[in-house]
Design brief:
Blueprint (H helix, E strand, L loop, with lengths): L8 E5 L4 H12 L3 E6 L2 H12 L5 E5 L5 H14 L5 E4 L14 H26 L6 E5 L13 H22 L4 E7 L5 H4 L3 H9 L9 H12 L10 E4 L14
Parallel strand pairs: 1-2, 1-4, 2-3, 4-5, 5-6, 6-7
Helix pairs in contact: 1-8, 3-4, 4-5
Length: about 260
């Protein structure tokens, strides 16, 4: 039985939809006080309203993680509102597709600025509060794409997700002296709004390539985040947890026949 997260102050970036919203809901269901952050105010308001309709203790903060000033203001506002910050979930990310032939510098900078630099900005700004927490936790949402696998059109995305893990490993060493852990979630194919828009045939083909024969659900990622955030995970830091139904294991589709 894990120690309760009741009353813990949590911030989840990129939480207006998809995995981020699911992570925020997971923490709120455990009794945490949860701040959701996103750039789009209308989508953020809708996400907050959907969780409050379940009776959950959540609130929204508009911010752009690619902007250092915006991040600093976000962290301060969350800490002031929720009496500190115990758990930071760096989930905000963008994933536009572009082939190497078409990829331009602005595309690269946009993805790296949000996914990699945004992680750095959030962790750095949160340190003063995490150090005051009973036990501080940082959880990054990376991906299997980049650190382990590749996919056409996502060279910049894959680079940004691999960069998060490089950052994490050194950050884990530096944060350990303050009792703060930092770990990463590496989702595979998770059934989010974006993936559902690809159509039933696409979803069926993707599920067929996974040993468990199904796509992941958002709760699969939220549950892993809850583990990393627990008191009981206090001896785990600088680690990556792959949540993909075994997707990266087969050498070929013949292995699944």
């Amino acid at each position: 039985m894990f120690t309760s997260l009741q009353g813990k102050s949590v911030l989840v970036t990129g939480a207006s939809a998809g995995i981020g919203l699911g992570i925020a809901r997971g923490f709120a269901l455990q009794g945490a006080s949860v701040a959701l952050s996103a750039r789009n105010a209308a989508k953020l308001d809708a996400a907050v309203a959907s969780l409050r309709a379940e009776g959950l203790n959540v609130r929204g903060f508009v911010a752009d993680v690619a902007d250092a000033g915006s991040v600093k203001a976000l962290i301060e506002a969350v800490a002031d509102t929720q009496q500190g910050l115990d758990i930071l979930c760096c989930n905000a990310g963008v994933f536009p597709s572009a082939s190497l032939d078409a990829l331009c510098e602005s595309d690269w900078d946009h993805v790296m600025g949000t996914n990699a630099k945004g992680t750095f900005f959030c962790v750095q700004a949160a340190l003063r509060y995490l150090r005051k927490a009973q036990y501080g936790r940082v959880i990054l949402t990376s991906s299997i794409t980049g650190p382990i696998t590749g996919f056409p059109g996502w060279a910049h995305y894959g680079a940004s997700k691999a960069a998060q893990l490089g950052f994490m490993r050194t950050a884990a060493i530096e944060l350990a002296r303050d009792g703060i852990t930092i770990n990463a979630l590496l989702p595979g194919n998770i059934l989010t709004e974006g993936l559902q828009g690809m159509g039933e045939d696409y979803l069926a083909d993707m599920a067929a390539s996974i040993p468990l024969k199904r796509l992941g659900v958002i709760e699969d990622i939220a549950n892993a985040a809850l583990f990393f955030a627990s008191r009981e995970a206090g001896y785990v830091t600088g680690q990556s947890l792959i949540i993909d139904g075994g997707q990266i294991l087969p050498e070929s589709l013949q292995a699944l026949a």
